[in-house]
Amino acid sequence: MDWDKLRVFHAVAEAGSFTHAGESLNLSQSAVSRQISALEESLGVPLFHRHARGLILTEQGELLHRTARDVFAKLSMTEAMLTESKETPKGPLKVTTTVAFGSTWLTPRIQEFLSIYPDIQLTLLIDDTELDLAMREADIAIRMNTPRQPDLIQRHLMSIRFHIYAHQSYIKKRGLPKTAAELAEHDIITYPPDVRAPVPNVNWILDVGEGVARSRRPALQVNSVYAIYRAVESGLGIAALPDFLVENARDFVRVLPDVTGPKVDAYFVYAEELRHSKRIAVFRDFLVRKVAESHF
After folding, report:
1. What pLDDT, on the 0 to 100 scale, is given for residue 124?
2. pLDDT tens digits, residue range 82-104?
3. In the list 20, 27, 60, 118, which could disulfide-bond 45, CB 3.0-4.6 Å?
4. pTM for this structure?
5. CB atoms within 10 A of CB 228
6. Are the C-beta atoms of 223 and 217 separated by less than 8 Å?
7. Strand 91-97 and strand 120-126: pairing?
């Protein structure tokens, strides 16, 4: 199939007339009409119904138009990426991650990133539900589990460790548990068991020590790891928290420091078609550097 004729067909299908397509292509109406007629002849099918009020795609024309639109959209994206690769990273970049990670670890580091790359327009989507990267709801996701979609590129970003924490204000009131068994005498804050959590095995604290919390109602259940952190900060009780949440927190105490929760791996994820995006590359490299500087 002749690419020049396909380009003309795409312009005509989008514009709905030979005249408007000719204006966008800088061709005469007759030249556009000849190209379309030649394409129809080579394919052996009509692509447009011609009438006094304009052009309407035939069934065959609709099929070709859908394909052509996809092809030219991909070509346009590729052209943008090739141009981007020669220039300073710039343009929009949409990143999604969990509420806890995005609010406490990622957001405070964004000022430094934007000072290095001021031409990138960054949007953070802080949400515990997973957005669809294939549908371009976001360009990048930082996820606490292995992506299930096969057409996504993933890079291991960090391993997150969980420990049990309490605030000094709680310990002053209730004392510090010295053994796992003593946890049963304390107020435990957990994630609701019937709600999908952003990290696997989020309620592992209930399995520490025999009969610790299984036999009693937690003091609070809340469907946000960040909210659990804030509840602990208020002195409400004891909870299992990721170490990055308390990295710079004041007056938090690690309870039963020898007890370590499950390791959770965080992944930097993006769509295959964005493999060569310079914006994604510099953001990934920035995060890798920041992770190396962290102390959790």
Report:
1. 95
2. 665 556 788 899 999 999 999 98
3. 60
4. 0.65
5. 25
6. no
7. parallel
